[in-house]
Design goal:
Elements (H helix, E strand, L loop, with lengths): L20 E3 L8 H10 L6 E5 L8 E5 L5 E3 L5 E5 L9 H4 L8 H21 L15 H6 L11 H10 L10 H12 L4 E4 L30 E6 L8 H14 L5 E6 L20
Parallel strand pairs: 2-5, 7-8
Antiparallel strand pairs: 1-4, 3-5, 6-7
C-alpha cells in the first residue's frame, strides 16, 4: 500500500513561512566598519571578515561573497575579504618567500591570531563610545548609569534610558532645586510637572490647625509650609499604574531636600456620584 504525502505549495511546507529575500548591497571599497553598517541597514546580520593581502587601502573591503546584487535569504552568511598587511613581514626573510599564495599554511595560521588581535584592538579603539549615552551599546547602559548612581528601570525603552543618562548628569549641579525635580519628572513621565513651593493641600486635617471629622480625614503632623511643596502632574490617576506611582515617588524622594515634605497631586478625576461623608458626629442614622 502506497501512502500519499501532502504536496507543499509554492511557499514551502503547509503552514510554513517563506524566508525573507534581500538584495546584497555593494560594499566593495568601503571600510569594514562602514560596510557592516550598510549591511545592517539592508537587513543582514554582521558579516564575517577575512583578511587578505592587497594593495587596496588598509581595512577596506576587497571583495564580498555573495556578490552584490544577488537575491538571497536574510539569514545568509556574508563574508567580506578585507585588505590587511600580514604579520608575515615581521618574520625572517626566509619565511616570507612563500607568503604570496593565499593557500600558504603559515600565512593562514598567522591570519587567525591577527584577526583575534584586531578584534581586541578595535574594541579598545572604540572604548570612548562606552561613555557616551547615545553611542554606547544597550547592554552597557546599566553599567554606565552605575557611575553616576542612577537607577534605570528594566521596562524602560532604550530611548528613555539614553535620554535619562544624557540629561541626568547635567542636573547634578542644581540637584535639590525645583528646576532639577521638574526636569527629572518630565524625562520620566513625559509631562512637565507643576511644583508649588510653600504650599500644602487645603482642607487636610492637620493637628493643632483644623479638626473637622467628616470633611477632612488626612491626619498629618504639624506642617511648616516653608518646608513643604506640592507636585502636580497633568495625568489622570487612572492612567498611572501602581509601579509607575512607586517610581514617581522614588524620583521625588531621591531629588528633594531631606528636610522637605511633598504632596503628589494628579489631574482632577471626574466622579460619577458626589462624595458624601460617611460619618457626621451629632447626627443620627449615619
Amino acid at each position: 500500500m502506497v501512502k500519499s504525502t501532502p504536496r507543499s505549495g509554492r511557499g514551502g511546507p503547509r503552514g510554513g513561512r517563506r524566508p525573507r529575500k534581500l538584495v546584497i548591497p555593494d560594499v566593495n571599497g568601503l571600510r569594514l566598519t562602514d560596510a557592516q553598517i550598510v549591511l545592517a541597514q539592508a537587513g543582514f546580520a554582521p558579516a564575517t571578515p577575512r583578511f587578505v593581502q592587497s594593495y587596496d587601502a588598509e581595512n577596506s573591503v576587497v571583495s564580498q561573497l555573495p556578490a552584490r546584487g544577488m537575491l538571497v535569504n536574510a539569514d545568509t552568511p556574508i563574508e567580506l575579504r578585507v585588505s590587511k598587511t600580514s604579520w608575515m613581514r615581521f618574520l625572517p626573510q626566509i619565511y616570507q618567500v612563500t607568503s604570496t599564495d593565499e593557500s600558504d599554511l603559515l600565512l593562514n595560521y598567522l591570519w587567525i591570531f591577527q584577526q583575534l588581535h584586531e578584534g581586541v584592538s578595535d574594541r579598545i579603539d572604540e572604548m570612548h563610545r562606552l561613555f557616551r549615552p547615545l553611542e554606547a551599546e544597550a547592554r552597557f547602559l546599566p553599567w554606565l548609569s552605575s557611575w553616576i548612581a542612577l537607577h534605570l528601570e528594566d521596562d524602560w525603552s532604550e530611548e528613555v534610558k539614553r535620554r535619562w543618562l544624557r540629561h541626568a548628569p547635567a542636573l547634578y549641579n542644581i540637584r535639590g532645586t525645583k528646576r532639577a525635580l521638574e526636569e527629572l519628572l518630565e524625562i520620566y513621565t513625559g509631562t512637565r510637572p507643576t511644583i508649588i513651593e510653600n504650599e500644602w493641600p487645603e482642607g487636610a486635617f492637620r493637628v493643632e490647625v483644623s479638626s473637622i471629622i467628616g470633611e477632612s480625614s488626612t491626619i498629618l503632623p504639624p506642617m511648616n509650609l516653608n518646608n513643604c511643596f506640592v507636585v502636580e502632574l497633568a495625568m489622570s490617576p487612572d492612567s498611572v499604574t501602581d509601579e509607575q506611582l512607586i517610581r514617581i515617588h522614588r524620583v521625588i524622594r531621591a531629588e528633594k531636600p531631606a528636610h522637605c515634605n511633598y504632596f503628589l497631586k494628579f489631574a482632577e478625576q471626574t466622579a460619577s456620584d458626589d462624595w458624601s461623608p460617611f460619618m457626621v458626629i451629632g447626627e443620627e442614622g449615619m
